[in-house]
Amino acid sequence: MFLGTHHPRLDDKGRLTLPAKYRDALAGGLMVTKGQDHCLYVFPRAEFEQMARKVAEAPFTNEAVRAYQRYLFAGTDEQRPDGQGRVLIAPELRRYAGLTKECVVIGAINRLEIWDSLAWQRYMDEHEQRYAETREEVFPGLF
User: Fold this and answer.
1) Which among 8, 85, 89, 135 counts the fewest CB atoms within 10 Å?
2) Contact, 37 vs 123, CB < 8 A?
3) Residue 101 and residue 71: Cα distance in Å, rounded?
4) How far apart are CA 97 and CA 121, in angstroms?
5) Is the pTM of this model over 0.85?
6) CA torsion sign, 72 to 78 to 81 to 87?
7) pLDDT tens across 17-29, in order?
8) Which uninterrupted H or E stretch holds 5?
């Protein structure tokens, strides 16, 4: 389970050092893809494969399904962390997420999310009050 907030930096070659506590879970390979809200999702390879099978089972005769499948799979990059826990973030993925030097990596249970530091702060500023006021209808029976 991926939890917490971390503040790594992109180096001059576009590499990001993953938090040490996640390295074992990602040592077998990981998939970096475009996420919603202009962040990047980082899935362990097995988790991504499981999700990909579900996405592939959707009816390709549906135009929205085809568009989603194309965007998801064309925008995914397979990586294996180096000995220092770094992964290369492809230029197209950096552009999509607006990544600069200062980044934020958050745990989101089954995935990590990579955000540009300023974009994450804007997101938090915009959504923090709504989170504080969340009522049970978002997740009925959970709280």
Assistant:
1) 135
2) yes
3) 26
4) 14
5) yes
6) negative
7) 999 999 999 988 9
8) strand 5-6
